[in-house]
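To assess whether ligand presence alters the predicted conformation, the chain was also submitted together with adenosine-5'-triphosphate. Input:
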Amino acid sequence: MEELKSRPANSSPLTPLGFLDRAATVYGDCTSIIYNNTSYTWSETHRRSLQLASSLSSTGIKTGHVVSVLAPNIPAMYELHFAVPMSGAVLNSINTRLDARTVSILLCHSESKLLFVDTLSQSLALEAISLFPPNENPPLLVLIKDDEDDGVSSTIDSRFCCTYESLVEKGNPGFKWIRPESEWNPIVLNYTSGTTSSPKGVVHCHRAVFTNTVDSLIDWEVPKQPVYLWTLPMFHANGWSFTWGMAAVGGTNICVRKFDARIIYSLIRKHGVTHMCGAPVVLNMLSNSPDTKPLKNPVQILTAGAPPPAAVLSRTESLGFIVSHGYGLTETGGLVVSCAWKREWNKFPLAERARLKARQGVRTLTVTEADIVDPESGLSVKRDGSSLGEIVLRGPCIMLGYLKDPNATSKCLKEDGWFYTGDVGVIHPDGYMEIKDRSKDVIISGGENLSSVEVESILYTHPAINEAAVVARPDEYWGETPCAFVSLKAELTRKPSEIEIMEYCRAKLPHYMVPKTVVFKDELPKTSTGKILKFVLREIAKGMGSSSTRVSRM
Ligand SMILES: Nc1ncnc2c1ncn2[C@@H]1O[C@H](COP(=O)(O)OP(=O)(O)OP(=O)(O)O)[C@@H](O)[C@H]1O
């Protein structure tokens, strides 16, 4: 069989962009996008994306150029996920909640040639450009006007070269989109959330995005033509690849500018939403809001991005949501591990189901291998649910590397063939993984490693607690002790004291894991993607000094 080799017919580069051509044929007359009073069909989304790609090419955008976008979940943001790479360029979606200084740094770092700006992010973009060093060329600016304000104001700030719609209008609908010469060509540049350090520029290729998109659809069992509500920002790792995924299955994308529980519940009812995604903070808001109402029809919700406390999972499921739980990093494009659900687990009571579902799980189908290794020996940890190690992965959706940062790239993409995630976890006897912490968040008390996630999951079961985060506080004797920062639910008739919270934990946790300090806060500091900023809390805890002078262990 040696003479049988790869040939042009069987080795064309994998890319998710072809999903849109197919959607225009199969689902041409079906609704692709709904946003307020605007709606499109799949043939319109296809045509508009080609027109935009053609305009980008005529503007001088070439293969490999970076084109950025600063926009929430609006139709233009969806179209750009196809149009930009169809012009050969690399899409860089920027988080709209970042400050001007960070946006400026990212635009400079990526050498972005053109920036699409949502109408509400104009001042952020203009300030970011004003902070550019004099020797750097800022990107061209294109304004995305909202369908709501179209026609109201026809003038635009002179610093914008044109509007998004004018680019669409003048483009050629028959444009032949630029296929990648190699499937290893970059397609997106995504900056990490900056939870543990400054954001790093993750570059993914067409092949990685193709596999991750198909993988995520299979893993979540997404059927044809779902009604998908965009509660997860598309700028967060391209909405875990469901931007391209919705074209693959001909779904209807319900776009929404911002997360608000009342609006979300009303859109679910109005459009018959079947699927949505969100970080655990979204589940917490949905199940803790005054607008919370049990659903008429079940809605599939996929959560990832941070550890979901079992208490939040069971509260969300009791409303009629069917929660799936996955794990991934910007560096993996989307989800790479998921809590693959077994039918026999359905017979367990809600709390037990939630406990099982809070585990991150097993590798998804296209991930070659996932393991947890001992940091010293590099060997797999025991499957005993208690031996800690670092989660490592290998597979097609691992990033090409960090832009202009070979040191950081080689630190996590190591010579031994693994991608080191920086997450610490255990493997249970049934082979399911569970994250215990990020390596930087592990608390070491009296020489013992203590999982802040485990303490938090107990705090979340307290009826008065809204959100909780546990970090290390220095201690003269133990080295570190757990310090809990909590926000309380609104409208409590009686607020618990610090001692009561500690006693609540003492009844449910080994003594060394019980927080020695409890701090009440109105709100916990978060990253722009909704993750609790533990390093900020750690600084506060550090500033409080030692938690004890020589005391005996509780
Ligand atoms: N299901 C999950 N359970 C627990 N943690 C999760 C889960 N999914 C993702 N995470 C956490 O999110 C991290 C990936 O987040 P992301 O790529 O958005 O940026 P970040 O790591 O928060 O930012 P930075 O690398 O800049 O600090 C993972 O490494 C992990 O710690």
